[in-house]
Fold:
Amino acid sequence: MGLAERKAREKRQRRETILEAAKKVFTADGFNGATVERIAQEAELSPATLYLYFKNKAELYATLNLRMLAFLCRRLEQVDNEPGLDHFQKVRRLAEVMYDVYTFDPQILGNVLRMQGSQELKGLPQPMQEEINGMANQGLQAMAKIFSDGIAAGQFRDYHPIALADMVWAVFSGLVLWEGSKRLFNQDKDYLKPTLDLAMEMMAQALVRDPPEANALEQTTSQGAAL
Structure:
């Protein structure tokens, strides 16, 4: 291994060390309680060294956010490309995808959801803002595709796919934050997974398109009633 290659590998490893330290500190102290000095201490580095890799704690947090978004995109693509699943099964499988995103790192996810739209994250460098927005949009589009495919196949009601994807994320976000309060009463019970399963089952059933004969009968009945 050449000198340049070894230095590049050491740089990647140090970056990973910093991110793992940041993850631990954010999980323990939350975003507001975390400091660059505390993260550097956890990584066994000086703050000056840490600043060579990340501008501030918001950039560190955004990087962890990007990892979670990338994981979401991969899982959505896996579901969409999984052979043998019909359109309704893919919608139901969204509960599993969302739960996997939650278990990827529950504390970081909860903090990210609480920080959505915060001024501190809006102060990120423009390239990182664009990367986060791009990754979030990629996840939204991947989820919307599951709905648009079902609509195109004539199996789902003709609702706006993006609106449906937004609804899934809104329900998921609310349930994650709700889960935190529920665990204050019972640390051992998993409220999130069964509630996600129920929400996606209800959505799948609500998407069922009435057969053409049902629509024709409804129109005939309505016309008869009008007479």
Remarks:
- The domain at 57-211 is CATH 1.10.357.10 (Tetracycline Repressor; domain 2).
- The two ends are 87 Å apart (CA to CA).
- The chain has two domains: 1-54, 57-211.
